[in-house]
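Format notes (please read before filing issues)

Several people have asked whether sequences and structure tokens are stored in separate files. They are not. Every record keeps both together, in the order shown below: the sequence lines, then the token lines. Line labels are part of the format and must not be stripped during preprocessing.
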Amino acid sequence: MANIKVLLADDQELILESLHIVLSMEEDLDIVGLAKNGEEAIIGCEQFQPDLVLMDINMPVMDGVAATAVIKERMPAIKVIMLTSYKEVEYVLTALNHGAEGYLLKAIHPKDLAAGIRVVHAGGTLITQEMASKMIKSMHGAPAPISNEYGLSTREIEVLHKLASGLRNQDIAEALFLSEGTVKNYISTIYSKLNVKGRQEAIRKVRDSGFTDH
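Then the structure lines:
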């Protein structure tokens, strides 16, 4: 059987190199590319066509959640495992919502990481029971009519809530662990989907739709 082609994405060089060294020791894994942000991960996927991406969540330029959304839209066959040092549920939930196959904490033992890659490559998912129950609760407990009406993603709704609260782009970026450039990209997509030209018009439109801020 052919080896599993893996692309690694992490903005911390030490982690990136450690992952590269550790996973290269596994006979059935080939590390085909390294990326330091979400944009590089997308380019790497287009260039190397890996079977699987190990994707950090918090990265500059474009975070791992946004990059996962793009990769899954353009190259749905590529599987994505989120690598995170946090336990923030919403980031993992959003990534899973965009089609990621699971997540692993960075503190995982290298052998377990390699085993996780094989599980996902074989068609499995990596979601803990705790996360699965949070996903179910979030699906049942988060009415978001605008999401269906305008096709906004979970992340776009988060940005929209912050906009409606009057936060500036820089504040939104800090609150959601994104770069300011990524926030601007989200906002322009939101305006396009809502068919509005600016912040006030967007806020008015969502309030008229009954989509009020929490």
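For reference, the curators noted about this record: The first helix runs from residue 13 to 24. The longest strand covers residues 29-35.
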